[in-house]
Design brief:
The protein is an alpha+beta fold. Helices cover 28% and strands 33% of the residues. It has a single domain, classed as 2-Layer Sandwich (Alpha-Beta Plaits), CATH 3.30.70.100. It has helices at 16-21, 26-29, 55-60, 62-72, and strands at 3-10, 33-42, 45-52, 87-92. The longest helix has 11 residues, at 62-72. It starts with a strand and ends in a 6-residue tail after the last strand.
Length: 98
C-alpha cells in the first residue's frame, strides 16, 4: 500500500536557495520514492511531501533521507517545542480520495 511522509522545516535567513538546492537530486538517491514536492508554507518555511511505493520502501530510505538532511542541517532553525530542526510524520494511505 502506498505511503507518504511529510517533513516541516524552517530555514535560517539567507539560506533558502541552499536548502532547496540540497533537495534537487533526491529522486535518484531515495529508492522507492514515487513523487515528491517541496511546498513553501511561509517566510522561510517549507514542507516536503513524498509518496512512496509502500511503507517498507519509506522505512528503507530513512538512512538516505537522514544523509540528505545532514547535508543541509546547518541551514535550518530549531522549530522549538523539542522538535529539533524537523517535524516529520509518515504513514500508509488509509483512504484515497482523488
Amino acid at each position: 500500500m502506498t505511503a507518504f511522509n511529510a517533513v516541516r522545516f524552517r530555514v535560517k535567513p539567507g539560506h533558502d536557495q541552499e536548502f532547496l538546492d540540497a533537495h534537487k537530486d533526491i529522486a535518484g538517491s531515495w529508492p522507492g520514492l514515487k513523487h515528491v514536492n517541496m511546498i513553501k508554507t511561509g517566510d522561510r518555511a517549507y514542507c516536503i511531501i513524498a509518496e512512496w511505493i509502500d511503507l517498507d520502501a519509506l522505512a528503507n530510505a530513512r538512512p538516505a533521507m537522514i544523509a540528505t538532511l545532514n547535508s543541509f542541517r546547518d541551514t535550518l532553525e530549531d522549530l522549538g517545542g523539542g522538535l529539533g530542526v524537523t517535524d516529520a510524520v509518515a504513514g500508509p494511505v488509509v483512504l484515497a480520495l482523488k
